[in-house]
């Protein structure tokens, strides 16, 4: 019965591609990549025909069902034209592919049908059966691929024309679009749009910053090179030597290093599907105008002329109805006006620094975060350990699978307040409506032997941890409403800072993401607060607003500097007798949009941060202190 059901699904797949079992065979694979690998390993790779593939059916077609339906993720297929199947010379054979073979002699006879020769082992029959429902649902909802093609191409073409027409107030383009077509022929252009954004000086905006801001508007984009290095190099002008030098500079596939020497290492891609709507186009374009166009917004009228003769009705929408976009020089309130922003002093006294630039200001606050992603513990003075502030991010909360929880997935973590009690040598965990629970700071060797040692990950690094027991796990599970546990970094586990530029021995880390310390400048906070007030039409900043903003950036050290953002240029910093080395700038994400007192999410301050920093969402700098001697940091009142 299972075999018959799978065969019916094979037939349904061929029907979807307007062919038959007489012409093609469906070979199920573990994914589209495996389908391509099958051809690459089995095909002799030498010219066998001079046929024009534009006039004749393809020999092989690889399919990703995940890309078609969003499910299942681990299943693909290869369509093999029957009269070309004989040229695939497979060397390996697995279970179910042999008609006969011997264990003591080099003897093997393959099964006669193409699918049975290439499907090693048991196929994923439950996932295969689900494909039938996917094809039927797609047909019922859309009426077929021809309609989907017209619909999605119309949306892509509309967005392409409007995005290409957007100009900053000085007339410079907002986007550089990468395409081999001008979006006039749906048979030559798919429903995707690939681009990079430009500021009003023509400089590139990093794609990771675009992605971070897009997430605030619930817009999902893909960024990078999309596993297509050839097209990426061609369109972005990246040479082979540049790829190698970028790797030496620290950039690897999938990271957030989007600009190197001002040149992009990838781009932004948006895609349209059958479920996409015209409102989605409007939402995306409004997002671009709101966050990346320095107004008043202008449009290139000659580009808009292309909208009028378009065939699909979806792309005949009048351009003046696009929110935030106008063909004249008038301005709407919701647009960004970066030119109107001013740097205004807070009016509060700044402690004079010493004459040397090594001490630019005064340390005003010290924060540590004993449990990663939970609330801050503010102190007036605190010991420095080999990994940073003593007991900073030594513990973290994980789900039942051992995956670290952060405020991105569970904002209520910020309402869990840890306290370090050095006198009694324990950690107390507190939250509103809950009795506190206590955990030893340094468990005895006997205690740790009784608790399981487990592996977890922090920013891709494997870390060795120790479970803190059932009592605190029950407390956390009750408060968060889901099974979770508290784990502690093993005392004998060493983790070094990746790609550190401080020189000397490797810098040891706790469970922090990037570096031992994070420092921010109150002068920079004041400028950012002014931008937020300006963008939202509020009055002058209040003391509470500034303090709340400081908490969102979750820094260890807060200083009162002479100038806003001067910290970006520092290479070292001395606090008291302790010398710190700068390890880089801190790139920000949507986590700073979480109010640390209420756990509510908002688009600020990330939106204003990107605006006032010309699309670069960095704030604060990382520090390292590689001394093995424990010292103490204190605020002036400490």
Query: Any guess at the CATH architecture of the domain at 147-339?
Result: Alpha-Beta Complex
| CATH classification class of the domain at 147-339 | Alpha Beta
Strand order of the largest sheet: 17-15-28-27-31-30-29
Estimate the strand proportion.
15-25%
Helix fraction bin: 25-40%
The gyration radius over C-alpha positions equals 29 Å
Say which CATH homologous superfamily of the domain at 147-339 is assigned. Answer: Aspartate Aminotransferase, domain 1
CATH topology of the domain at 147-339: Aspartate Aminotransferase, domain 1
Number of helices: 16
Report the count of strand segments: 32
Q: What structural class do the secondary elements suggest?
A: alpha+beta
Global shape: globular
GO molecular function: lyase activity; molybdenum cofactor sulfurtransferase activity; molybdenum ion binding; pyridoxal phosphate binding
Protein name: Molybdenum cofactor sulfurase
Domain MOSC: 491-638
InterPro entries: Aminotrans_V_dom, MoCF_Sase_C, MoCo_sulfurase, MOCOS_middle, PyrdxlP-dep_Trfase, PyrdxlP-dep_Trfase_major, PyrdxlP-dep_Trfase_small, Pyrv_Knase-like_insert_dom_sf
